[in-house]
Amino acid sequence: MSHTAHIPSHRKPRQRASKSALRAGVAGGVLSTIAVAGAAGPAQAEPVTQTIEMPTITSGFSTAVAASAQATQQVALDLETQADEDAAAEKAAKTAKKAHAEAVRKAEAKKKAEAAAKAKAEAEAKERAERASRTADRTTLSASSGSSDSTGSSASAPSSSSNVSGSAASIVAFAKAQVGDAYVSGGTGPNAWDCSGLVQAAYRTAGIDLPRVSQSQSTAGTQVSLDNLQPGDILYWGGAGSAYHVAIYVGGGEFVGAQNSSTGTVQRSLDYDRPTGAVRVL
After folding, report:
1. 252 near 160, Cβ under 8 Å?
2. Which pTM does this prediction carry?
3. Structure confidence at residue 30 (pLDDT)
4. By C-alpha distance, which of 149, 158, 201, 159 is closest to 177?
């Protein structure tokens, strides 16, 4: 075998060197091309220039804008003013309507009050006329009864009011004259009574001062039997000293009393409401 056959390393370095040179040459060529292209590029490109004209705001345009803004503000102000005026008009209309309704109500109330006052006056006038008529009748009756007694004519039964004289006659006549008057709790006349108020006022016409309340009036005199009553006796309902109602016996089996708010002052038979007892003050 030859000695030179064993030196492969002498060839391989040469191959690597040639390859390196080749690569270097290629790289240099590429870079040269890029450099030439870069140098030629700016010389060949032409810049594109475009001019944009901006509008100029003149003084006239500014005035127009200001006027438009002022007009808009004025419209808004006018709308607000109109809204205020509409609200005020609506409020005034409501107030006027309410005032009219109140005036109508007051007028109707006044008309009703006048009608009620007129009716009351007529009723009171009628009552006074009836009372005067009853009083005249009682006076005539008492006078005729006294004449009969003085001439010796026959008199009525002791229980009848036709032969009553003196204080008893005055008490009975007053009580009967109040028939038809109203009953009012605590009433003492002249046109409204409660039971004890009527009895007290009747006895006052005879100069006798009675206690004010029923309980005291039921013990103001001598206790008498209901079978032995005389005109002018005080009738009571309930116990003596604890009576809840009183009236005046007027003779003929009848009494006059201010009963209650439904009936007022009435003349009734003892059988209508039988009393518990009686006292005689005269």
Report:
1. yes
2. 0.46
3. 46
4. 201
* Strand 182-183 versus strand 192-193 pairing type: parallel
- Determine the Cα–Cα distance for residues 272 and 266; give it in Å rounded to an integer: 11
Residue with more model confidence, 124 or 276: 276
Closest residue by Cα to residue 249 from 137, 158, 140: 158
Q: Which amino acid is at 280?
A: R
Helices 195-204 and 166-177 meet at what angle, rounded to 10?
Answer: 140
**174: amino acid identity, one letter:** F
Provide the H-helix boundaries in 51-165: 59-150
For 128-156, the DSSP string reads HHHHHHHHHHHHHHHHHHHHHHHTTPPP-
> Which of 47-61, 63-77, 221-235, 258-272 shows the lowest per-residue confidence on average (mean pLDDT)?
47-61
> Which architecture, in CATH terms, is 161-280?
Alpha-Beta Complex (3.90)
Please state whether 12 falls in left (phi above 0), alpha (psi between -120 and 50) or beta: alpha
CA atoms within 13 A on the CB side of 273: 17
